[in-house]
Amino acid sequence: MRRHFRFMLVLAAGSLVLYPASLLAQRPGGGTPPPSQPNNTNQNSTDTGQQTKRIDERKFLQEAAMNDLTEIAMGKLAVEKGGDDAVKQYGQKLVDDHTKADADLKQMTGGHVDIPDALDSKHQGRVDKLAKLSGPQFDKAFIKDQVKFHQQNVRDFQDEAANGSNVQVKNYASKNLPTLQQHLEQAKELSKEKK
Questions:
Q1: Mean per-residue pLDDT of the chain
Q2: Other CB atoms within 10 A of residue 169 CB
Q3: Could you give the domains of the chain?
């Protein structure tokens, strides 16, 4: 019985020595190297003890540019194929607002980030799908697409505005967020009218 007690005591003491080391290894900035971080244009490396979501700001900018190109194409399609005047006006607003946002983004990055200048196959597919429709059929599909798209786009811009580490990119997201929110609200209103 005494041997068993001593063995348990040695085991307990050993785990007390190992336990803090395992905690340190799991802590950010502890004994193990951190996982590879996304490529930010400017990353804040101070450890506040809080886990903050890291944003790949280069990717955010590239996606924002691709979304601008897509929304310009979608807006032009709405002007051409929309059956309702409200849908055509909304389409023109998309063209105007996203053309301005795209110009701002290109000016801000100054050629330091590869910004797409043509739609990739995924986004072109979204445009092509709607290009086959016209009139009321187009209006319904277009508005449904716009609500879904802008819900995600607003979330992405809110995330960057709140958690980004590059001041210029955060300011860009903050500046353009109200326009995207307005697009979302207008799409929701049009969606109610089309039901």
A1: 80
A2: 25
A3: 57-193 (1.20.1260.10)
Report the distance separating Cα 101 and Cα 104, nearest Å. Answer: 5
AA identity, residue 54:
R
Q: What does the buried/exposed string (b/e) look like for 4-41 if buried means 16 or more CB atoms within 10 Å of the residue's CB?
A: eeeeeeeeeeeeeeeeeeeeeeeeeeeeeeeeeeeebb
pLDDT tens digits along 27-73: 333 333 322 333 444 444 344 334 455 679 999 999 999 999 999 99
Q: DSSP assignment, residue 194?
A: T
User: HSE-up of 161 (CA within 13 Å, CB side)?
Assistant: 15
CB contact at 8 A, 43 and 58: no
83, 138 contact by CB (below 8 A): yes
3-state helix, strand, coil in the chain (%, to 5): 75, 0, 25
- DSSP-derived secondary structure letter, 128: H
116-156 per-position pLDDT tens digit:
999 999 999 999 999 999 999 999 999 999 999 999 999 99
Amino acid identity for residue 184 in this structure? L
SS3 of 90-107: the string is HHHHHHHHHHHHHHHHHH
Task: Name the residue among 190, 93, 184 with its Cα closest to residue 140.
Answer: 190
pTM: 0.72
